[in-house]
Amino acid sequence: MRSPTCSGLLFTLILLVTAGVPVGPTGAQEVQEVQEIDGIAAIVGEEIILKSEVYLQFQLELGGQGLDESSLSEEQRDQLYATILDRLIDRSVIVEQARIDSVIVSRSEVETAIDEWINTIKTNLGSEANFRQQLLAEGITEQELRRRRQSIAEMELLQNIMFTQKLDWRPGQVSRRRGEEFLLETADELMIIRHIFLKKPEDLDTEAIAKRMIEDLRRLIVEDGEDFAAIAREHSADPGSRPLGGDLGSAPRGNFVPSIDDAVWSLPIGEVSAPIQTQFGWHLVEVISRDSTNAHARHILLAGVGIREALADTIGMIESALEAGEEFEAVAVHFSDAESAQNRQAYYALLPKGFSPNTGIPAEWYQALEAIEPGAWTEPLEVDDGINILQLLAVDVESVTLVLQYDFSTVQFYIHSIERQEAAGNWLSDLRSRTYIEIKPGP
Q1: Is residue 3 included in any domain, yes or no?
Q2: Among 25, 225, 242, 320, which is 20 to 30 Å from 146 by CA?
Q3: Are residue 319 and residue 391 in the same domain, yes or no?
Q4: Cβ atoms 355, 191 nearer than 8 A
Q5: This prediction's pTM
C-alpha cells in the first residue's frame, strides 16, 4: 500500500513562509524589483505585504472551507481578499510597533518555534520518511525550508510577546447572571451537547469479529441468494472496488497478493471462495471469467471491523429506547460508561458552531451535529476507545442552567476571549492610527 502523502503541502508552506522586504532608502531597488515580479498589496511602516502572500492565504482559506475560487462571485472574492489583507496588515502593524519598542526575540526562540513547526508537518505527513519524501518531491532541503520559515517564525513570536506585554487587559470576574445572559445572547453561535459513551470491550478481537462477519456475508450470497455486487457495495472496505460492486477488473496472474491470486486462478467460475485472510483483512472472492492470459474477478473486503459491531446489541437497545421517547439523560444513566452520565446529567460540552481544530472535537462530529435538529441525536460515532452518541440541545433556560452548573469555566473562557478580542481590536486601532499604511489597489 502507498505511504500517506500530502502533495503540494510543503510548496504551500514554503510560500507561506515568504516574508516582506524592508522598505527604506537602502531597500528601494529591492522593493522595485519585487513589485515588478509580484506586486505589492500594502505597505505598513517599513514592511510590505506582497499580493502573492495575500493570494496564498486566500487559497488556504478557501481550502479550509472546502470551497473553490470559481464558486465565488466577484463581490465575494473581493471581500475575502480585503478581509485577509486586513488580517495581514494587523500582523505587520504589531511587528512594526515591536521594532519601535525594541522588542526582540532570541535566535534560540526562533529555532525552537521552527522545530515545532517542522514537527507538526512531520506529524501531518505521518512519518519522518514521508516528510523526507515530500521534501524530495518539492525539490527543497530541510535546511532551506527552515531558512525560509525563519522570518515568519520571528514575526509570530513578536506578535505573541506584544499581545502578552503590551495589551492592557486583565480577565475580570464573571457572575452567574452574566454567564446566563451571554449564553442566551449568543445562542445562535453555540451548541450544547449531551452524550452516551460506550467503552470498547477490553477483550475485543477485531480480527475474529471481521471473520464472523465475512462468514455471515458469504452465507447471504451462497445460501440466501443475495447479489454479490450489492453486498460488496454495502459492506466492502475497499474504496476502489466498492462502488463497482467489488469488481477488480481483468488482470494477469501475479497481479494480486498471493492468497487472492491463488483463488482467482483456481476457483471455478461463479463460485464464491471461503474467507481468505490477507494483511488487509478478510476477503470473499468470485471469478467472473478467466482465460489463459487474464482473470476477471471481484471481491469483498472487511478490514478493521470491531468496536461498533461488538457493541451492536447495546447500540440497538439505546436507539430503540430513544426512538420510543425515553429521555436521553435516563438512557445515558442506564447504558453510558461515562462518569458524566451519573454525576453531570450526561452533559458533555459547550461548543461553538462551525468546526475548529482548537476545540479538540473531530470534524466528523461537527458534521453529524450540524445535520440534526435540537433534541435529536447523532448516529453512533466511533473513536479509538469506544462509541459516542451525541444529543444536540436547544439553547434555552433549561440547557443554559445545565451548562452553568457543570461547565461554568468554559463560559468564563468564552466571555474572557471575547473581552480580550475587543481589547485587542481597540489596541490595534490605536496602533493603526499611528502607523503609515498604504493599501495598493485591487486583488
Answers
A1: no
A2: 25
A3: yes
A4: no
A5: 0.59
